């Protein structure tokens, strides 16, 4: 690790990135780009060529098949469609895979090499190819798959966000793909949202911390490096805040909330140097985000100072008309989106965007200056990536592809993400224990990986995952097949919808339980993403609940292993479980990591990056307002709104114990913009080595608007041997205690604050008030 990144990881642990303050002064983009070359190219381009640069089509459009949705295999480029795309429309970008499946590195290089030849022949400008490589290089066979983002957040280790992204960049660029639509920086604050698992959890600070590390991993110090890719932060902004909890449904949000919770991760990523942004597919306060100049131009470009490329999500300019009815026709939708600030349209299946935009410019309804601005940024991005000099990788550059060191990193990330939530003296298990492994997730590589794995919905994982271990495989390998019985009890219907199940035989699982000492019950979800994963019931499925209750009734100790993209409710049977482990979506090495934890080779250290709800109408986040949990009022009224999480944010057990003592400040009275130091002693009071995530929270005792219950302000993951004590130091600033007030000012107010680290609580006084920023309304 270079010194700069070592400083980054250390500083991230000390809480130097929040919505109000960032480790980096905003990174200057395109510093390696020759502006005069960009200007010369722009000057020679026709209007048609400029609009082509702003156009992105999916690979299916360019391959042979009866229609764009049904290309044939083996994959062959269609010469007629190539001519249409590159000779007629001068298309500047291609995305995605074809036929919704992964390809080998060799196929990708051949395929993209041919596309580059066609594009350069027509315009002299290479295409920029993009994919969603979100936990590894999604569409490349043999690539190294890490835990999904929610699992990386559960490690509470920014270093995994950095190193995992670095490996993904390496293997994506090896596939001739220089643009990655990642990381996803939306907050997972609504548990039913089907993209919850693609987030870094519910907290803005944890998300911002991981975001900055991921950007540095993807982009490195030199974007033209053959081992770097351009990141694309998504989906700006407040995607996932939908009132319904379902994907791409309307959001109603006051600007104070948008700025306090949702903006910080994007600011951190922009400051860290991300070169592109993808826009929220949904509607905020009645207006599609893709047609909102307040959010795209005033907030993103002017206030945040973003200078990179702004790209739509899938078909979202068309959706302004087709779905949202916020334009009279497709042509008006194009006009609204481009004038709002969009630089590139992910079309993705036709070329009407080009025709409409050319007409709009000729009719002076879209200024040519807006076109030139967009194309300049696109050209700069291509030049910064070195695509003009090296449009495809050189042979022999990627000898570490899927290397053992990459696999070890993925295993370690999975191991540190897995979170022990309950342990009534049943774990770790002894090797050679007679166990039953049951449940629909027990023998499924698909469930371990989740969506965006070899295919969009992850349904093709089994075609590419030979050689990896399911949970059952890994347990049997560790414990011996003769000691390990597998009966699914319930299985997913892999040829149906993600949530469809068929009952094999719960009675068979119950019979098998009679001959074992412990039951490892693997429940959760099958793969899904985006709107496909919308749901109406957050409880774990009825069949899985029946299986759980039947196995509990045997009297054998049941250890529940959760393998899920969002926290499915288990409160109807959780009290009778002896152990609970959350694996999230840990990737190809998740089964092996889990087995190592179950049998005590690895001490679990993951912590929840979200609040695990107990009831469907009690979906609070940890930073709730005091009024949300008031239990009673003087007089005749009683309330039933006590806070009751199944497991709280930041929670996770270990096979050892940690004690906290000696919380102290270097000063207890500070100015609103003054640095202060918090110190605390942490001791491993147990009998084995372990890792602990030390979390620092602040609570404002009163403010001009109702303060949150508490807010995460810093964290650091440490490792301690038995009996070992470490003195931890957190350096913060009064601005870290700031909030967005009613007038949209970021302010730290005079008053008292509680600082909580572990079991330790102290009080700090801010002696004055300071307004750091006065924001202009954009909504």
UniProtKB/TrEMBL annotation:
Biological process (GO), any one: glucan catabolic process
Protein keywords: Glycosidase, Hydrolase, Signal
Keyword flag Hydrolase: yes
InterPro entries according to UniProt: Cellulose_Degrad_GH3, Fn3-like, GH, Glyco_hydro_3_AS, Glyco_hydro_3_C, Glyco_hydro_3_C_sf, Glyco_hydro_3_N, Glyco_hydro_3_N_sf
Molecular function terms from GO: beta-glucosidase activity
Its EC number(s): 3.2.1.21
Annotated SUPFAM superfamilies: (Trans)glycosidases, Beta-D-glucan exohydrolase, C-terminal domain
Pfam family, one: Fn3-like
Known catalytic reactions: Hydrolysis of terminal, non-reducing beta-D-glucosyl residues with release of beta-D-glucose
Enzyme class, broadest EC rank: hydrolase
Domain Fibronectin type III-like: from-to ranges: 692-761
PANTHER family the record matches: LYSOSOMAL BETA GLUCOSIDASE (PTHR30620:SF16), PERIPLASMIC BETA-GLUCOSIDASE-RELATED (PTHR30620)
Family according to the record: Belongs to the glycosyl hydrolase 3 family.
Name of the featured protein: beta-glucosidase
Organism the protein comes from: Sphingobacterium olei
């Amino acid at each position: 690790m270079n010194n700069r990144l070592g400083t980054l990881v250390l500083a991230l642990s000390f809480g130097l990135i929040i919505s109000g303050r960032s480790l980096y002064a905003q990174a200057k983009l395109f510093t390696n780009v020759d502006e005069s070359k960009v200007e010369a190219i722009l000057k020679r381009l026709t209007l048609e060529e400029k609009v082509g640069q702003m156009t992105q089509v999916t690979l299916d459009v360019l391959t042979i098949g009866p229609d764009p949705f049904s290309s044939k295999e083996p994959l062959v480029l269609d010469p007629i469609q190539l001519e249409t795309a590159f000779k007629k429309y001068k298309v500047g970008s291609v995305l995605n895979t074809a036929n919704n499946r992964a390809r080998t590195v060799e196929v990708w290089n051949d395929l993209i090499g041919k596309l580059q030849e066609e594009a350069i022949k027509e315009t002299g400008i290479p295409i920029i190819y993009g994919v969603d490589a979100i936990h590894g290089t999604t569409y490349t066979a043999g690539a190294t798959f890490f835990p999904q983002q929610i699992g990386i957040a559960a490690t509470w280790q920014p270093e995994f966000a950095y190193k995992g992204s670095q490996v993904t960049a390496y293997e994506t660029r090896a596939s001739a793909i220089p643009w990655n639509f990642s990381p996803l920086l939306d907050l997972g604050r609504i548990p039913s949202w089907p993209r919850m698992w693609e987030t870094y959890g519910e907290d803005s600070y944890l998300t911002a911390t991981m975001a900055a590390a991921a950007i540095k991993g993807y982009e490195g110090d030199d974007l033209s490096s053959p081992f770097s890719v351009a990141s694309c932060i998504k989906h700006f902004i407040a995607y996932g805040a939908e009132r319904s909890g379902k994907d791409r449904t309307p959001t109603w949000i006051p600007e104070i909330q948008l700025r306090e919770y949702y903006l910080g991760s994007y600011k951190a990523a922009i400051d860290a140097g991300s070169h592109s942004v993808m826009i929220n597919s949904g509607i905020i306060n009645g207006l599609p985000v893709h047609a909102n100049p307040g959010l795209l131009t005033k907030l993103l470009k002017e206030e945040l100072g973003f200078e990179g490329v702004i790209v739509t999500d899938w078909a979202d300019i068309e959706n302004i008309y087709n779905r949202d009815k916020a334009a009279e026709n497709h042509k008006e939708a194009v006009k609204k989106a481009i004038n709002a600030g969009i630089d590139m349209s992910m079309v993705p299946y036709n070329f009407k965007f080009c025709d409409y935009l050319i007409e709009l410019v000729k009719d002076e309804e879209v200024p040519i200056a807006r076109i030139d601005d967009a194309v300049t940024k696109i050209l700069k991005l291509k030049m910064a990536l070195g695509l003009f000099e090296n449009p495809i990788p050189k042979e022999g550059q990627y000898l570490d592809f899927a290397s053992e060191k990459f696999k070890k990193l993925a295993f370690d990330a999975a191991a540190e993400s897995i979170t022990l939530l309950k342990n009534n003296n049943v774990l770790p298990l002894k090797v050679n224990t007679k166990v039953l492994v049951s449940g629909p997730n027990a023998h499924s590589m698909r469930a371990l990986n989740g969506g965006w794995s070899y295919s969009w919905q992850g349904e093709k994982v089994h075609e590419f995952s030979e050689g990896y271990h399911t949970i059952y495989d890994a347990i049997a390998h560790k414990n011996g097949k003769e000691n390990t019985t597998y009966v699914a009890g319930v299985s997913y219907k892999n040829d149906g919808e993600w949530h469809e199940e068929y009952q094999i035989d719960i009675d068979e699982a119950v019979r098998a339980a009679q001959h074992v000492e412990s039951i490892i019950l693997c429940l959760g979800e099958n793969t899904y993403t985006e709107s496909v994963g919308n749901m109406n019931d957050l409880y774990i499925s009825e069949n899985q609940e029946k299986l759980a209750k039947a196995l509990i009734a045997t009297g054998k100790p049941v250890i529940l292993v959760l393998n899920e993209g969002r926290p499915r409710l288990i409160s109807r049977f959780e009290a009778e479980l002896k152990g609970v482990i959350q694996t999230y979506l840990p990737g190809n090495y998740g089964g092996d990591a889990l087995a190592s934890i179950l049998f005590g080779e690895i001490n679990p250290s993951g912590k929840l990056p979200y609040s695990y709800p107990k009831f469907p109408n009690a979906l609070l986040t940890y930073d709730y307002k005091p009024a949300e949990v008031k239990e009673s009022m003087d007089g005749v009224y009683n309330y039933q709104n006590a806070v009751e999480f199944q497991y709280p944010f930041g929670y996770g057990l270990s096979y050892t114990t940690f004690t906290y003592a000696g919380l102290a400040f270097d000063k207890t009275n500070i100015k609103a913009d003054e640095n202060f130091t918090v110190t605390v002693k942490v001791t491993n009071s147990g009998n084995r080595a372990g890792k602990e995530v030390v979390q620092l929270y602040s609570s404002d005792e009163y403010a001009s608007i109702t303060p949150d219950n508490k807010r995460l302000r810093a964290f650091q993951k440490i490792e301690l041997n038995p009996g070992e004590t470490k003195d931890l130091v957190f350096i913060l600033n009064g601005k870290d205690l700031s909030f967005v007030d009613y007038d949209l000012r970021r302010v730290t107010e005079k008053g008292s604050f509680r600082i909580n680290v572990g079991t330790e609580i102290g009080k700090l006084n801010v002696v004055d008030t300071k307004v750091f920023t006065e924001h202009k309304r954009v909504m």
